[in-house]
Structures are given as C-alpha cells and as structure tokens.
Fold:
Amino acid sequence: MSKLIPCLRQLDAGHFTSGEAIAERLGISRASVSTTLARAETYGITLERRHGLGYRLSRPIEWLNTSAIQGELMPASAFSVEVLDHSESTNRALLAAPQHGRVLVTEWQSGGRGRMGRKWLGTLGGSLMFSLAWTFPEGPAQLAGLPLAVGAALARAIEAAGVREIGLKWPNDLLLPQGKVGGILIEMQGDALGPAQVVIGVGLNLYLPEGMGPLDQPAAALEGNGLNIGRNVLFGRILAELERTLPRFAAEGFAPLRGEWEAHHAWHDQPAQVHMPDGRHLQGIILGVSDEGALRLQVEGQTRLIHSGDVSLRRQRA
Structure:
C-alpha cells in the first residue's frame, strides 16, 4: 500500500502512462512499479495495460485534496482536515489524541470497523472514510441521540447533492433502495459529568466495483443514484453540515432534529426484530424515535423504548 497509491496517482483514465515514466517520477525501479500495480484490483481499482504504452485507469479517480475540501467549509471553521493515504483506523488514531475539530480522512483503511465490531469495507478512491473529534460539555450519558443527529446531517448533505432516496435506519445506518450506503460509529471517553471527547467515524460508499465482497448485507453506492458533485466537494459539504449540527445538538439535544430524522426513516411502520444483548428477541412495529433518540417499538400493543447499546435491529420478513 505504501507504493500503490503514489503509483496510481500518476495515472488517469484519459491516456496511458509508461511504467518507466512512473518509476522515474517516484524514484523506484520499473519492476517495483509493475509488481505494485499488479495489486491494484485487490483494492477495487481496474487498470488497462497495453504493451509499449503502459497503464491507464478504467475509470477516473478524484483523489482527496485538503484545499478542495476546506474550500467548502464555513469561514473560521473549527475543523482541521488531514488527508492520509492509509490508516488502520481513523477512529483509533483520533481516540489516541482527540483534539477538538481534528478531522482525519483516508484513501484506504485496513482495519475499519463499524458498530458492534463489524468490519467496514471501503473502495480505494470510491469511498469516504473519515473521523472527526468533537468535545461536548456534557458527559457521555447525555449524548444518546448523537448518532441520529449525525445521520440527519449526513442525509441533508447527501440529499442536497442530488441523491433523493437517501434513508436512515436506527441507530446508525444510511440506506438506499438497493442496500446500505453508509454507517456511523461513535466512540467517546471522558468523565460521567463531562466533558466528553467524542470521535465520530463515518464510512460512505460513493462507488462499488463489481464483485466486491463478501458482505453481510446488500450494499449500495451514491454514484448512479443522482450524485451530482465530486468527492472532495461532497466531503466538504458533509463536514459543513456536521459543523452546523454538532453545536446545535450540544445546546438543544436531539429533539429539534427528530422530525428531520423521521422524515428520512427508511423502516417507519415496518415490522422488525430487535436482538437484545441478553439473547432475547423482541418483535414489533417500528413507530419512530423518541426525543432522546431511542427507538419506539410497538410490541403487543405497548410502546417500548429501545436504547441502542449493543442491540441489533433486523427487518422482520413476512
């Protein structure tokens, strides 16, 4: 990976670039270029190779660019954006030093994970995989609705970018009709009475190569579903929406965002099964969420409030 991204950055989809030219630019051997680019498909990148001409990308890649991202942020933004070629986990890196407003976004993440320890798979050049650090004056117990507030901000930015069927699934998934397009992982540390240092991790599929897998559920991507802006602009606008939403959440909680979240609720009024930490399964109809971000589930005529914790929510098939 240490050589792959620099090699790929020398290529485009419009013309061929020789291995000799890449080797000269990067100060490595021609054999190293060949060996490195042979691994590209492992990371979801398809290359066209032609003898005597070299290599070109089968589809363009818009590489992450700090200046382009920060150009979409609010004036005097609290965010400081750092672009990485590779990270084991942007969440882990920020948890080690959760400086307020620091943002890490990576082209490739080898140890990305979602909620409940699930692995998050991205695509090199076709994903947004990032984490941001934010300090809240309240303790962790007051932040139960934060994943939903983040989801509302993400849906707002994605919808403004032309994607009209973006949905939210409690507590931390973003959906399209074809499947899951993104996820949110929030980790925090701090005293019970505050402040809380929070790291918000997001994985978002912009493009999915054919044959990606194995996946534990159907996946989807924003490209082909109306997305009308580039990767850097989209990321900058997502950050701008988060920077508007996080202070509001800190001051007012989730309640003012509840209506917006429920307007994007993909499983509203649907039968579902909740897998509880103790092994029990609750079956009922999803009614929505509470002002604190708990799931409202109708079970045998009674409304139950389900708090996220380590529960798992699955749609109940007929």
Remarks:
- The chain has a mean pLDDT of 91.
- The chain has three domains: 4-57, 66-263, 271-315.
- The first strand starts at residue 47 and ends at 50.
- The radius of gyration is 21 Å.
